[in-house]
Design goal:
Structural class: alpha/beta
Mean pLDDT: 97
Number of helices: 9
Strand order of the largest sheet: 6-5-4-3-2-1-14
Largest sheet: 7 strands, mixed
Number of strands: 14
Helix content: 25-40%
Low-confidence stretches: none
Shape: globular
Radius of gyration: 17 Å
Distance between the termini: 6 Å
Strand content: 25-35%
Length: 267
């Protein structure tokens, strides 16, 4: 079975990912405009009516902007925890509240959606409630951890299962420290319920990389406190210090904030 992955957008301004087969797929988060989602999928010859469901990680605007449209206007089921659903409908960005499209998930209770086995799990962040997703399809395991302040034992468990890992590298510590953000925001970002720095992510991967991990995509890069090349180099250097060679032992990519990635196809 061919499995397709696209990052439609990944950054502090909006996040949305597609994972699918040759005939249907799902979205993880929908924090960009509905027209952008439709156009990007169309550019890759993916029909909107082939989207079976949307899975939401938390209720911050950069992850939910289009869910009202997808859920209520297009009748696509929106899956997440009860607390995240409550947070979504309280959000200022929700012009179209969710009702008929609401579907509930319990953390660490797997669900089956056609060929997908999908399991949500707790991650530390400052949304109303926060999850990552571990998704298995045709023996391939994708783990999505897009916003988290630290890698807990639970998060580490799901990272260790992944063949394909989407993991946050939000900020460069020096750029955040020297940047123009107010003190409270800098403290929020660098807290245990904020975001992962490039060096946090690099250190963890270097110490815990598995032989079955094939791809790492660095996601949710900050517009003001990071650069794709900097995130990439920080992780590449740390992996190299442990004898792991990017391009040979594992593939590493820093996802773009506002433009889609290439279409990745895995068999």
């Amino acid at each position: 079975m061919k499995v397709k992955f696209i990052s439609l957008a990944s950054g502090s301004s909006g996040n949305c990912y597609y994972l699918g087969t040759e005939t249907y797929g799902i979205l993880i988060d929908a924090g960009i405009g509905i027209r952008t989602i439709k156009k990007t999928l169309k550019d890759y010859n993916i029909l909107m009516d082939s989207i079976r469901a949307v899975f939401i990680t938390h209720d911050h605007a950069d992850h939910i902007k289009a869910v009202g449209n997808l859920g209520e206007k297009m009748n696509i089921p929106i899956y997440t925890t009860a607390r995240i659903h409550a947070g979504i409908n309280r959000s200022y960005c929700m012009m179209e509240k969710l009702s008929s499209s609401v579907r509930y998930l319990e953390k660490q209770e797997p669900m089956i959606l056609e060929d997908f086995r999908i399991e949500s799990f707790e991650v530390p962040h400052d949304g109303t409630d926060n999850v990552g997703y571990c998704i298995e399809i045709d023996g391939k395991v994708f783990s999505f951890l897009t916003d988290l302040g630290e890698i807990t034992p639970t998060a580490a468990h799901y990272i260790s299962k992944a063949h394909y890992l989407i993991l946050e590298a939000n900020y460069d510590e020096e750029m955040l420290k020297m940047g123009a953000y107010p003190k409270y925001l800098k403290e929020r970002i660098s807290s245990k319920t904020g975001h992962m720095s490039n060096s946090d992510t690099a250190e963890f991967l270097a110490e815990h990389i598995t032989e079955h991990l094939r791809y790492i995509w660095l996601c949710h890069l900050s517009k003001d406190n990071n650069h794709p090349e900097l995130a990439y180099k920080t992780v590449e250097w740390k992996l190299k210090s442990k004898g792991v060679i990017v391009g040979k032992d594992v593939q590493l990519l820093a996802l773009k904030r506002n433009t889609p990635s290439e279409l990745y196809v895995f068999e």
